[in-house]
Design goal:
The chain is α+β, with helices and mostly antiparallel strands and 140 residues long. 27% of the residues lie in helices and 29% in strands. Strands 1-2-3-4 form a four-stranded antiparallel beta sheet. Helix 2 packs antiparallel against helix 3 (112-129).
Length: 140
């Protein structure tokens, strides 16, 4: 999978997170934001841009030796379009299989369980392109 840079990211703390600050037991890891940003492919020949949407959380950073704030923002992507390939395919891949894997790549960021189901569809397409029967009678 290709790594992308985040040149532009905007976030805003959620209403629930803001309200939680008044709670007597409030901790910095209760802070959450919604964010939107742009990803840019670092490959000089590509430079594809994608939109990323998600939420953030706060995580305590182990190394506090420099005296800085021990909390850091963690991004949890929920949607990316066009989705980065989590499964890369050779150019010789049949069109039906490529289409099924593109669905896996897109769904992974939205619903990983649905992406898993699409992997099953992709495997079925591979079997179909190899002319294997969908069912087989086994005498036992």
């Amino acid at each position: 999978m290709t790594r992308h840079r985040l040149p532009h990211l905007e976030g805003e703390e959620t209403v629930r997170s803001k309200r939680a600050r008044t709670h007597g037991d409030w901790e910095p890891d209760w802070v959450t934001e919604h964010f939107v940003g742009w990803l840019v492919c670092p490959n000089q020949e590509c430079k594809e841009r994608a939109i990323i949407v998600g939420h953030t959380g706060q995580k305590e950073i182990i190394d506090e030796s420099d005296g800085s704030d021990p909390w850091g923002r963690v991004l949890y992507p929920e949607f990316i379009t066009p989705a980065p390939d989590i499964i890369e395919l050779p150019t010789s891949t049949p069109k039906q299989v490529t289409k099924a894997i593109e669905a896996v790549n897109a769904l992974y960021w939205i619903d990983p369980n649905a992406a898993g189901n699409r992997v099953r569809v992709a495997v079925e397409e591979i079997l179909t392109t190899r002319h294997l029967p969908k069912t087989q009678i086994v005498k036992g």
